[in-house]
Design brief:
Blueprint: H1 3-23, E1 37-52, E2 60-72, E3 79-89, E4 95-103, E5 108-115, E6 123-131, E7 139-151, E8 156-169
Antiparallel strand pairs: 1-2, 1-8, 2-3, 3-4, 4-5, 5-6, 6-7, 7-8
Length: 175
C-alpha cells in the first residue's frame, strides 16, 4: 500500500460508515415543504491544487477536493454525503467554484461557491442551486470556515471546514 493510499484508507472507511449510518435516517422531505430548514455540519476533504504564477506575485490556482460532508442538527436534516468541489482562485483573493454533495442513495445537492483563497481561516459561501432524487427542487445557502488547509507532497492538499451552517427548502407542494 502506498503512503497516499494508507493516508486515504481511514478517511474512506469513516465516510463509508457515516453514509451507512445516515442512510437509515428518515427522509428529509416531509410536510414542511416551502419552509426554511436550518442545518450545521462539517466537511473534511483532500485533493489536488495546481498553481500558475501571476503578475501580482500571488499564484492563481485550481483545486479539486473531495471528502465527507456530514449535516446534523437540522430539524430533521441529518445526512451524510460525499462532497466534491472544483474551485478557481484568480490570484486576487477571489475564489469561485462549484460543489456537489452525493448521499448514500446517489441523490445530489448542487451549489455554487464564492469566497477567499483556499487557506486556513478563510470563509466560503455556498448557494444551493438544485438537487436530484430526495433533494429535487431544493434551494438554499450555507457558509463555512476552513479550520485548516495543509499542503502535502506535490500538489496534494487536505482541509477541514467547520462552522458549516446553512438553510435549505424544498418548493411548495402543488395544491
Amino acid at each position: 500500500m502506498t503512503r497516499r493510499a494508507a493516508a486515504i484508507a481511514p478517511r474512506l472507511l469513516a465516510v463509508s460508515l457515516t453514509m451507512l449510518i445516515l442512510a437509515a435516517t428518515p427522509g428529509a422531505q416531509d410536510t414542511r415543504r416551502g419552509q426554511w430548514r436550518a442545518f450545521d455540519g462539517s466537511w473534511s476533504a483532500s485533493g489536488l491544487r495546481q498553481t500558475i504564477p501571476t503578475e501580482s506575485g500571488r499564484p492563481a490556482a485550481v483545486a479539486h477536493l473531495s471528502g465527507a460532508v456530514v449535516l446534523s442538527n437540522g430539524g430533521g436534516i441529518v445526512a451524510g454525503f460525499t462532497g466534491e468541489a472544483v474551485g478557481f482562485d484568480d490570484g486576487t483573493n477571489v475564489t469561485t467554484g462549484r460543489a456537489v454533495w452525493t448521499d448514500g442513495a446517489g441523490d445530489r445537492i448542487f451549489s455554487a461557491l464564492h469566497g477567499g483563497p483556499l487557506q486556513t481561516g478563510r470563509r466560503i459561501t455556498g448557494t444551493i442551486t438544485a438537487g436530484t432524487g430526495r433533494w429535487a427542487g431544493v434551494t438554499g445557502e450555507y457558509k463555512m470556515t476552513w479550520q485548516y488547509v495543509v499542503s502535502g507532497e506535490g500538489e496534494s492538499i487536505q482541509g477541514r471546514a467547520v462552522d458549516l451552517r446553512g438553510r435549505l427548502r424544498w418548493p411548495q407542494s402543488p395544491r
